[in-house]
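Appendix B. One record, verbatim.
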Amino acid sequence: MDTFISFYLSNYRIHIFRRAIADIGNPKYIRFLVRDEGPSLLMEAYEKQDFQSHRVRGMFGERTGMEISSQPLCTLLKNRLKWDEGKSYRISGKTYPAQHVAVFDLSKAELISDHEKDDLQKEGELKL
């Protein structure tokens, strides 16, 4: 199934769309893995809290997803993919519910316009 993830490099925020979390089984924790050989990012359901994991917060009301802060991941992607530090990027991906993972093709990152970020802030979907 198709889903999205967004990276806001100016404040090291990652917006994960609700559907991605639901499709991988609404886990208590998630973790990200980046392939050394290619431009893939894997988000997987994870069973415990440790230095690799991020707690999945409750997603209630009209919000379209959750946000986490990860300076290390944002910096790694910025450097590896030569992204502009003050910009924001959205990446499409596919979820694989049976495996409890979502895979995102980092080579297909799209720049999020300032106008689009303003609209998301007004709708309460983005905290910058």
